[in-house]
């Protein structure tokens, strides 16, 4: 194998970055799947807590390390912003929109897709409470029931948001790009533009050769016949 072939196999669209790179549809599908699962788990556990726990009465779960304490939170962590619940709800909606925009424009890494799925699932779980629980839409109280020592009471949705944020920070610290192809791209190149051009080339129909025109590298039937006569 010559050096040119080796170079093309290790860099560019078919390099190691491309092999780790997800399509936009797969990124969005992974984010949506993780978000849906997390949001469902969040609502199931919240409904269980409402049905089985007494308000503000801690129940040991893992001794005193983790207790189950039901409360209704109209604000953010530590009850902050309880007077501006609609603003908190709007912020959570903005997080969902931001996740979608970032995913569409920049994310092709499976790890970043997992992180964004966790953040979106957590945001959606709490948005559900803000919009559909008492007292009214955009003023609803979020159900919290998990309590650690010296930490505000939280829920599964909060775990998703915090876990996703920590994962994104960790990926950044370890130098993992949101788009793996960017790691292999030459300076001044745009991976997104190259992908679009490549897709357009792959989808373009191949034109048939005109009459009397030989296909590239081919031999006409008349030429083969004359060679046989000789």
N-end to C-end Cα span: 38 Å
Largest sheet: 3 strands, antiparallel
Strand pairing plus helix content: what structural class?
mainly alpha
Strand residue percentage: 5-15%
Helix content: 55-70%
Average pLDDT? 82
| Tally of DSSP helical segments | 9
Radius of gyration: 28 Å
Uncertain residue segments? 3-14
Draw up the topology in text.
Elements lengths: L2 H8 L5 H4 L4 H29 L6 E4 L3 E8 L11 H22 L3 H23 L9 E6 L8 H18 L7 H4 L6 H13 L17 H9 L1
Antiparallel strand pairs: 1-2, 2-3
Main traits of this protein?
230 residues; three-stranded antiparallel sheet; elongated
Structure description:
The radius of gyration is 28 Å and the shape is elongated. The chain is built from nine helices and three strands, in the order αααββααβαααα. It has helices spanning 3-10, 16-19, 24-52, 85-106, 110-132, 156-173, 181-184, 191-203, 221-229; strands at 59-62, 66-73, 142-147. The chain has a domain at 22-181. It has 230 residues and is mainly alpha-helical. Strands 1-2-3 form a three-stranded antiparallel β-sheet. The longest helix is centred in the first third of the chain and has 29 residues, at 24-52. The protein is 57% helix and 8% strand.
Can you give me a brief rundown of this structure?
The chain is mainly alpha-helical and 230 residues long. The protein contains 9 helices and 3 strands, in the order αααββααβαααα. The protein has a domain of 160 residues.
């Amino acid at each position: 194998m010559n050096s040119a072939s080796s170079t093309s196999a290790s860099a560019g669209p078919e390099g190691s970055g491309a092999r780790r790179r997800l399509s936009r549809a797969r990124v969005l599908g992974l984010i949506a799947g993780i978000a849906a699962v997390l949001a469902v788990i969040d609502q199931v556990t919240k409904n269980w807590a409402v049905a089985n726990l007494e308000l503000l009465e801690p129940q040991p779960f893992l001794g005193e390390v983790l207790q189950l304490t039901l409360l209704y939170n109209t604000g953010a962590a530590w009850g902050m912003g309880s007077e501006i619940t609609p603003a908190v709800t709007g912020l959570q909606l903005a997080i969902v929109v931001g996740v979608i925009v970032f995913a569409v424009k920049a994310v092709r890494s499976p790890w970043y897709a997992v992180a964004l799925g966790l953040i979106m699932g957590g945001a959606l779980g709490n948005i559900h409470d803000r919009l559909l629980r008492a007292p009214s839409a955009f003023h609803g109280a979020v159900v919290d029931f998990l309590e650690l020592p010296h930490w505000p009471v939280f829920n599964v949705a909060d775990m998703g948001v915090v876990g996703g944020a920590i994962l994104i920070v960790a990926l950044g610290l370890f130098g993992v790009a949101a788009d793996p192809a960017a790691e292999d791209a030459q300076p001044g190149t745009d991976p997104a533009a190259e992908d679009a051009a490549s897709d357009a080339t792959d989808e373009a129909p191949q034109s048939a050769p005109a009459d009397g025109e030989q296909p590239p590298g081919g031999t006409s039937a008349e030429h083969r016949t004359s060679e046989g006569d000789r």
